[in-house]
Structure prediction request, 365 residues.
Amino acid sequence: MKVTIPHMGNVYIAAKALFEGLGVDYVIPPQNSKAALEIGSLHAPEEICLPFKIMVGNYIQAIEQGADTVIVTGSCGPCRFGEYCEMHMNLLKRLGYQVEFIVVDAPKAIGLKELMARISRLTESSPRSKGQKWRALAQAVRIMGLLDTIEAKAHEKAGYEKVRGSCKHLLRKCRQEVYRCKTPEKMLKCLHDYNKRMDEIPCDNSARPVRIAIIGEIYTVIEPFSNLYIEDKLMDYGISTKRLMTPSWWVGNTLMSPTRLNSLSIKKASRDYLPYNIGGHARECVGEAILSWKSGFDGAIQIFPMGCMPEIVSKAILPTIARDKDFPILSLVVDEMTGEAGYITRIEAFVDMLERRRSHAVSGY
Ligand code: SF4
Prediction:
């Protein structure tokens, strides 16, 4: 068995730690790029959302490097993601690829017994003892959490750093170095080290940077290739950003969902505008817009793929929130045809507007 995963932000680093810890053979697909998107766009249905196409590209690139088993999360929720796995399996089969799928779904949807059976399909090929397997899983989760913490610090501190670009530079080095580590133990040590170094980046605490919340569809918010590296661009402008959607948030939220105690603050915040779960993370998007307004952010940017059903609903609600709360929100739609120049112009115009609002608020005009 040679396993692979689709890309989504830093997940590949935690996945590498897990596979190394389990001692199973694996292929991490090449970083997302135009090549992966072109492969996916060639074979996927034209109207399907962008994450589906990029994932097809990831799978085919990994299969060509010897992968025979895909590990992916699933969802029985009311959007297309619930059909992704079946569609991916059929598509790859039609193209003549022999590949197994292990779909890790929420226990609420498939039952705990079925979930354990699926996980054991992966772990039974591991030569490690039971204790070592649990340890590998725990280490991968810690690695995922640390990466999210370091990334969040870098995005927030970018507005305060004394030397422009230092947070971005350190974050890039962190990702490269941790990926080169051979064992989960070394990866953890490396991440602790970078976490400390991120804390020590010299900052001007009297600075009052523009602060923007990044909200929207989970894949396009987390995966930088799909959002044309928006967080990197905002760091270059000296903007402080924050996003709730991270891989570790997703893990915690999924595990807690059977108790209905997950994301309580978001559910409460979204109540007046979208009190139902309509699939994807539309409710979270609406709730986050309210929470970021309450936390004093200057504005929010919503990102979602063309044709994303849940986010089209939240996009229709966000202008009401923007008007009610006097809170600017920009919606950006991405697909394989998105032109970078127009995309950047919209972001720059939004940032300019937030800066002008800020200076008018200070001067009283
Ligand atoms: S949330 Fe949107 S982009 Fe994601 S699978 Fe569902 S419809 Fe597609």
Q: What stands out?
A: The CA atoms of residues 212 and 241 lie 5 Å apart.
